Amino acid sequence: MRKLSRSWWQGLFVIATVAATIVVTLISLRDFQREVVPPENRPIQSQIAGYVSSNACRACHPGNYASWHASFHRTMTQVATPQCLPPDMDKLELAFNGREYKAERRGDKFFVRTRPESGSYGEPQQVVLVTGSHNLQILWLDTGEGRTLQQFPFGYIVAEKMWAPVTETFLIPPNVKEYYSTGAWNGACMDCHVTQGQSRFVAGNKWDSQVAEFGIACEACHSEGREHMERNRNPFRRFKIHLTTKSDPTVTNPASLKGLESGLACGQCHSVWAFNGMADKIEFNRHGAAFRPGAGDLSQRFVVQPNAPDHTEQKDFIRRTEPDFFHNRFWGDGMIRVTGREFNGVQASPCFRGGEFSCISCHEMHLDSPGQTDAKTWARTAQLKPKMDSDSACLQCHKDMTARLVAHTHHSAESSGSRCYNCHMPRTTFGLLRAMRSHQVSSPNVHESIAYGRPNACNLCHLDQTLGWAAQHLHAWYNQPVPELSEDDRTIAAAVQWILKGDAGQRALIAWGIGWESAQKIAGRDWLYPYLIYTLTDSYAAVRFDAWKSLRTLPGFSDFSFTYTAPDQTLGEAATRAYKKWLGEVRNVNAVYRRETAIDSDGRVRQDVFQRLRSARDEKPIFLAE
Q1: Which residues contact 107 (CB under 8 A, 6 or more apart)?
Q2: Domain edges within the chain
Q3: pTM
Q4: Residues 147, 174: Cα–Cα separation, whole Å
Q5: CB neighbours (10 Å) of residue 506?
Q6: Among candidates 246, 236, 200, 183, which has minimal Cα distance to 46?
Q7: Cα separations (Å) of 341 from 30, 188, 420?
Q8: What interhelical angle do 541-551 and 504-513 show, nearest 10?
Q9: Which residues contact 67 (CB under 8 A, 6 or more apart)?
Q10: DSSP β-bridge partners for residue 273
Q11: pLDDT tens profile 116-160
């Protein structure tokens, strides 16, 4: 047989190479088309004018990108993947409100099937988005109605590694079984949980929602990046800016702004806001927020301060159409009482009037400060600057107070009573199943507790003392007038009154506050057990959760198991088990109880006081709209 020539073999190789290239190209085109065709069953990231996404910032700003990437702003909303979903999702089986739910995995996708009572499991719904990653994760399902989402009725509490009905992860009346309706993410949640979201209402309960980027990304704080990126491709321009000025007009740096403008960069989300009118609401829905960081107002919207003289027409409209709007968000004097709305408090603080005070007086969005901790710790401690969890936060402005601290506080310098934020930023805000510090800088007074029900800083620390005791000391030290007090206010500890006869908001704050180590050291621990054990059966799930968490901080109960979402009978059995454990194993038989705590010499709650206060409980529904 004649040997084939080398040119023939070369030609065959070329043909094979071309054919392989065509095949690979076709496969790549197929895969590319799969990737570029956006999913139709969830909101999508879209090319919104001027926005380029955080990936475009990474090459020139790797350090800032890295610290942002480590933050919980980035993971505020994520496309559902195995990496961001709670563990063991494929094994999840839950039941609530007459329905059973079962999750299943198909590759990297997860689905949920629902079965009503006396029925069979329905068609699977894909888990498409996840909101939250630090404290509470909420899952969103496709609905078969385009990009409209439905909330999975269970949330995942990260610290406890447990699932709970969403309605039992907020301070909501016990008779409320549905919290998020279909389309709620599209019509409300995405306003603050993505970067430049566009709800894009279609009709009925159908939405075509799009975002510039999921999560809170670079352009949420610095504004659109396209012009900045395009103009800074010129190296001469970059060098000129570095040599002549600290700012680039094509991008906003909140750290270089005055207090109001800087604060609004955060306040666009971290505030209770309302629309100026219906036209602005429609525009916001279709095209997203008109506000850009650096502006002096929210454009289509305004920050709501209930008792301020501005926007009276809009606030009157709110009162007529949503009577509980203010009650569900503010204390009676206008102080914010729900988490996530910190700018309302900052704006209402006397410090704000100076024009310099803002969110970044204490927090930083990137690891810029010398001596800063590692990124993981920084993210988990609210992105505070170094030492901002101490008196340094206040002393950076109030420098003269250092030399007269004890004279001002009337507490020893090392005492928790000499920490600025314990008195001027007490934990009177609630959300994410815990009490949080108010961001409205104020001074403690007993009047706020009597008139508005808000626990004052003195009695949040001195849990075993009365309102009368606090009023007398505030009068002696700061010449505050002593308000008119009831007999109970003069003889029974304020914390005892709040946890027995207070409304659900007060009970939640005290149930959490009893677990505060500083308060336990000052007020003693022995008398706290009966009140926390009793509160394990509170009608509000959030109050029960905080009572359980605080009970576990007390000696003898660190490993006490309790399912706070259990039926009433099971809750009662758990409380009985806890009480027997305390009475028979943990109680200090030599303990002495102050009369103000309403605990008798045997360590039992005085029944006459208990029954009277409990029968006077404020039962009005509390719905704290986080």
Answers
A1: none
A2: 55-214, 420-615
A3: 0.92
A4: 31
A5: 24
A6: 200
A7: 46, 15, 21
A8: 10
A9: 365, 366, 367, 375, 378
A10: 303
A11: 988 899 999 999 999 998 999 999 999 999 999 999 999 999 999
